[in-house]
């Protein structure tokens, strides 16, 4: 595509010299326009010149050549306005011996160059040409780097605790391999963030990362979501459809909440992990794929497999590399940095000017146990920032009630052991949670993620 002729705007008095310069620039590859004074120039800065067709690209001039100081023209002011409208505009000022000092000042304000009268047209042309190619380069670079950022933006894992630092360095080490990774961690600890970082740091980063969230799907469609199906393989399958494995070919497949995969599908999944091949539901054709699998879970798969709910061989296949993301309460050193990061992020997102957090509020945040982990912390900060007007720090009174009125909590050990029944585990969890919140049932139910009525029923059932 040929480059458009660069638009130049000349702001100077009506004179034979101005007319000659206009012609000269037009003959030398520019589309030159003329404004007789400052006011006219202001109007032409962001509007197409009246004699252009006003086509698609109706941006202002790329080059502005202006008298620095003359009757009805204030070159400096014009420079400032032009730069504000288009920071990349190339401004050249015409000075005379008496306005040299002013011209130097203009350079500080962002003028590209200045020329002394009497004007030397070829010299001026050379300067303008250099200015335009410089400006086009700058805007191309900023455009490219924006697109690069977009493409390679690394999910930033914030954390200065030792465990998180170690976790991040393991992530960096294993990202380049094709090894299957199992990420274990409570809800909201950052499992998906880590999965995305693994993909972005891998040689597969230009390919897709495809996600399947098993808990959101009913058991009987997980198989066809993963492996696809052939036309007519079941009622409603009126076309062949590719599954996530095929969609993720050459890239990464992120299987979230893998514990929810039904046993029949576990067998098929095991085979793909071993042989990288499978058949679509209702088909005979063997499909081969090159996919890196990352799985996440908040349930202990080893416990599930001890109880026969998860294939042990699949568990071993998955955990070639296992990453344990510790709950936030076990790495409270991360809280201050996370708080700071989220305040900055939410200020940007919601146009707020929160300056930080007071000591008192920060202390409460450190005391709290964050059952919803980093997600809960992030949501809490977002809510607080949204409701804060003006330039000030978040204070205790801005905290949600649960944090403001918390009683000191001790970390409780549930004393779980392999071989315990689910009922026994549930009983202990409820007991410990109730104790930790001073038997505030409403809070306990919230932490446990169950309804208040369910909590009452379970208390009765377990005789608590
Ligand atoms: N270390 C961290 N640094 C910055 N942001 C984080 C960090 N950990 C988690 N987050 C943010 O917290 C939120 C929850 O993280 P994510 O979705 O990865 O958690 P998860 O472990 O997958 O949770 P769930 O089990 O509920 O799906 C996201 O908005 C994520 O960006
Ligand atoms: Mg998740």
Commentary on this structure:
By secondary structure, this protein is an alpha/beta fold. It contains 19 helices and 16 strands. The strands form 5 sheets. Strands 2-1-3-6-7 form a 5-stranded parallel sheet, with helices on both faces. A 5-stranded parallel sheet has the order 9-10-13-8-14. Strands 4-5 form a two-stranded antiparallel sheet. The structure holds adenosine-5'-triphosphate (ATP) and magnesium ion. Residues 157-159, 185, 187-193, 298, 374-375, 378 line the site of adenosine-5'-triphosphate.
Strand order of the largest sheet: 2-1-3-6-7
- The helical percent reads 40-55%
Overall strand count: 16
Approximate shape? elongated
As a percent range, the share of strand residues is 5-15%
Return residue spans where pLDDT drops below 50 for at least 5 consecutive residues. 48-58
Structural class: alpha/beta
| N-end to C-end Cα span | 77 Å
Could you tell me which ligands this complex binds, including any ions or cofactors? adenosine-5'-triphosphate, magnesium ion
Number of helices: 19
What integer value in Å does the Rg equal? Answer: 33 Å
Largest sheet: number of strands, sense, barrel closure: 5 strands, parallel
Mean pLDDT: 88
């Amino acid at each position: 595509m040929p480059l458009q002729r660069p638009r130049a705007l000349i702001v100077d008095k009506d004179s034979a010299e101005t007319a000659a310069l206009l012609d000269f620039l037009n003959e030398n590859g520019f589309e030159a326009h003329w404004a007789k004074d400052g006011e006219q120039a202001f109007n032409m800065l962001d509007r197409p010149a009246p004699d252009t067709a006003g086509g698609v690209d109706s941006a202002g001039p790329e080059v502005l050549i202006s008298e620095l100081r003359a009757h009805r023209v204030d070159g400096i002011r014009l420079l400032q306005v032009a730069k504000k409208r288009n920071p990349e505009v190339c401004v050249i000022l015409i000075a005379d011996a008496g306005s040299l000092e002013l011209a130097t000042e203009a350079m500080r304000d962002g003028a590209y160059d200045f020329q002394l009268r009497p004007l030397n047209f070829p010299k001026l042309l050379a300067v303008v040409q250099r200015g335009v190619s410089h400006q086009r380069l700058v805007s191309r670079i900023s455009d490219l780097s924006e697109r690069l950022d977009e493409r390679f933006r690394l999910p930033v894992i914030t954390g200065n605790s030792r465990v998180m630092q170690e976790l991040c360095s393991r992530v960096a080490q294993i990202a380049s391999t094709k090894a299957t990774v199992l990420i274990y961690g409570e809800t909201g600890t950052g499992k998906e963030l880590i999965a995305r970082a693994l993909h972005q740091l891998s040689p597969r980063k230009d390919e897709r990362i495809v996600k399947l969230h098993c808990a959101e799907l009913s058991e009987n469609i997980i198989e066809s979501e993963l492996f696809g199906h052939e036309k007519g393989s079941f009622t409603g399958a009126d076309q062949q459809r590719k599954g996530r494995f095929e969609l993720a070919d050459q890239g990464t497949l992120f299987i979230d909440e893998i514990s929810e995969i039904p046993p029949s599908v576990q067998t098929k999944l095991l085979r793909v992990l071993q042989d990288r091949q499978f058949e679509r539901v209702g088909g005979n054709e063997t499909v081969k794929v090159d996919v890196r699998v990352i799985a996440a879970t908040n349930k202990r798969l080893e416990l599930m497999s001890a109880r026969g709910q998860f294939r042990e061989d699949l568990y071993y296949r998955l955990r070639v590399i296992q990453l344990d993301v510790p709950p936030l309460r076990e790495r409270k050193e991360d809280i201050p940095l996370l708080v700071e990061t989220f305040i900055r992020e939410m200020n940007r997102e919601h146009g707020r000017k929160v300056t930080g957090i007071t000591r008192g509020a920060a202390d409460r945040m450190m005391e709290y146990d964050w059952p919803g982990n980093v997600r809960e912390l992030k949501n809490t900060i977002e809510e607080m920032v949204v409701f804060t007007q003006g330039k000030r720090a978040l204070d205790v009174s801005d905290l949600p009630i649960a944090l403001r009125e918390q009683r000191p909590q001790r970390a409780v050990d549930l004393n779980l052991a392999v071989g315990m029944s689910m009922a026994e585990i549930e009983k202990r969890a409820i007991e410990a949670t109730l104790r930790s919140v001073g038997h505030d049932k409403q809070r306990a139910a919230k932490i446990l993620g169950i309804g208040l009525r369910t909590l009452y029923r379970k208390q009765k059932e377990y005789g608590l």
